[in-house]
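Title: Comparing notes on inverse folding

I've been comparing how different people in this forum approach sequence design from structure. To keep things fair, I'm posting one structure and asking everyone to reply with a full sequence. Here's the target:
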């Protein structure tokens, strides 16, 4: 059974009559990367942001469409809400939020402790973030 990214790539290739090389040239990524993403049975981890951007350009599809298909192929479901924090523009935040659901209870406690520790180690971070967004 094909995963979401395989289906997306293969259907786009069929629709447009493109080859892996065509997508690779347009996206400025290696042909072997396009082939791998189109044929691998299961993605172990999310592709790098640059790879997703290149695949998006090569397939002539929105980056969010490619990112969601890649995440789903890894077993991660990304949720983007209208309003509030714009996680769609920050793939690291979206991936972190979606990935937490896959962790065990003990691992989630470790992640929570790490985040709290990082926030305590730099109390000026919130003030700086607020001034950066203003």
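Reply #1:
Here's my take.
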């Amino acid at each position: 059974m094909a995963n979401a990214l395989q289906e997306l790539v293969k259907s786009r290739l069929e629709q447009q009559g493109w080859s892996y090389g065509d997508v690779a040239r347009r996206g400025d990524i290696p042909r072997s990367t396009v082939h791998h993403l189109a044929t691998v049975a299961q993605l172990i981890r999310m592709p790098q942001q640059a790879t997703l951007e290149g695949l998006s350009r090569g397939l002539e599809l929105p980056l969010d469409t490619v990112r969601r298909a890649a995440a789903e192929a890894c077993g991660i479901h990304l949720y983007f809400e209208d309003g509030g924090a714009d996680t769609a523009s920050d793939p690291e935040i979206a991936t972190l939020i979606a990935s937490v659901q896959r962790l065990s209870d003990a691992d989630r406690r470790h992640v929570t402790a790490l985040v709290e520790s990082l926030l305590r180690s730099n109390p000026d971070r919130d003030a700086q973030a607020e001034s950066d967004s203003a």
